[in-house]
Amino acid sequence: MFPMEKRPLAMLLAACLVMSMVIACGSSAGTSAPPPAATQSQAPATAAPATIAPTTAAPATIAPTTTAPQVAKPEAATPQASANAGEQTTVVFTDSAGRKVEVPKNITRIASSGPLAQMVIFALAPEKFVGLAGSWLPEAEQFITTEYYHLPVLGQLYGTSSSTLNLEEIARVGPQVVIDIGEAKATIVEDMDKIQQQLGIPAVHIGATTKTMPDAYRKLGQLLGKEKDAEVLAQYLEKVYSDTLKIVNTVGESGKARLLYCLGDKGINVIAKNSYHAEVIDLVGNNVAVVENPSSKGTGNEVDMEQILLWDPDVILFAPDSIYGTVASNATWQNISAIKNKKYYEVPSAPYNWMGFPPSINRYMGLIWVTELLYPEVADYDVHKEAVKYYELFYHGKLTDAQFNTLVANSLGRADVTSE
Question: Could you give the CA distance from residue 126 to residue 139 in angstroms, rounded to a whole number?
Answer without folding.
Answer: 19
